Amino acid sequence: MQPGFNELPSLNALRVFEVVTRHLNFRLAAEELGVTQGAVAQHIRGLEASLGMKLFERLPRTLTLTSAGAGYAVSIRQAFELIDEATRTLKPEPNHLTLSVTPTFASRWMLPRLPAFTAAWPDIDLRVLASERLVRFHHEGVDLAVRYGRPPFGSGVEVTLLFSQQVLAVASPALLAQLGDPQQDEHCQRYPLLHDGHHLWPAFLAFMFPQKSLQHQHHLRFNQTALALEAAISGQGIALTSPHFVQNDLASGRLVPAFSRVMTVDAGWYLVAPQHPRRQAPVAAVRQWLIDQVNQDI
């Protein structure tokens, strides 16, 4: 006779517990679960009562797991991952794939190539998620990611370099005609510098003018490269970017190189995937397609 599970706590309470262990905050857990903060607190109190022990220490602004709670959290998370895997095996969706990329990679590199992807893989339902932060693949339903930086990108993932970061300065041809050659330092200081989240202008100026220290007065700052590039296209200044992100703009003449030299940075754009993907065949297909597209750029 198979053993029963009469001593199991409420599965709803265990689900709430798993979410709270990730946020260590009742309010954030409630937002993820779509319930009230009071309901979350009630589930945790009930779970602690049924187990006869405290799982969390309540601090003024946060929570912390007790030693018993920390060990229990690992086991419960593993149990939910097994349930999730069993359910996906029972009802597989092999052609659905979520690709997480940075906003600039999405708008400047990925979107122009989506028609080619659809033509090559019409049976794959590709969902592109634009986000700067690192993802938790299994918890967030992400199958593959493209991230900028340097490895490692965490444990349990496989990393493949798409392309190294080279820094090209670009501007509109009309602005260059108006303000003169920025490779001459007296002209360079006339140009507004369009900054993004990578903060590469100090290093680029030192690279271009190693014997001088230029004190620029004109700056515009954006949190994404894509926004800085749009400002450059409209003639607002010089932006720094990877050549991969401005191929169409250079070909059409919307942008031109502002300097003849390109600076290499010790970082790159990487494909990041879990070592054991949930949808192995679509992940392999999309991964190879991305690599092939980058190779065509060379």
Structure explained in plain terms:
It comes from Pantoea wallisii. One of its GO terms (biological process) is DNA-templated transcription. Keywords: DNA-binding, Transcription, Transcription regulation. This is LysR family transcriptional regulator. Pfam families: HTH_1, LysR_substrate. The chain is α/β, with parallel strands linked by helices and 298 residues long. It folds into two domains: 11-90, Orthogonal Bundle (Arc Repressor Mutant, subunit A); 93-298, 3-Layer(aba) Sandwich (D-Maltodextrin-Binding Protein, domain 2). It is built from 13 helices and eleven strands. It has helices spanning 11-23, 26-33, 37-51, 67-90, 103-110, 114-120, 137-140, 173-179, 185-188, 201-208, 225-233, 247-252, 280-297, and strands at 56-58, 63-65, 96-101, 125-130, 144-149, 157-171, 193-195, 219-221, 238-241, 256-257, 263-274. The strands form two sheets. Strands 3, 4, 5, 6, 7, 8, 9, 10 and 11 form a nine-stranded mixed beta sheet that branches. Helix 10 (201-208) links the parallel strand 7 (193-195) and strand 8. Helix 1 packs across helix 3. The protein is elongated. The termini are far apart. The model has no long low-confidence stretch (mean pLDDT 90).
Q: Give the % helix.
A: 40-55%
Would you give the CATH topology of the largest domain? Answer: D-Maltodextrin-Binding Protein, domain 2
From the N-terminal CA to the C-terminal CA, the straight-line distance is: 65 Å
Strand content: 15-25%
Biggest sheet statistics: 9 strands, mixed
Counting DSSP E segments of at least 2 residues, the number of strands comes to 11
Structural class call reads: alpha/beta
Radius of gyration of CA atoms, rounded to a whole number: 25 Å
Unreliable runs:
none
Average of the residue pLDDT scores: 90
**How many separate structural domains?**
2
Contiguous helical run count: 13
Please provide the ordered H/E string of secondary-structure elements: HHHEEHEHHEHEEHHEHEHEHEEH
> How does CATH name the architecture of the largest domain?
3-Layer(aba) Sandwich
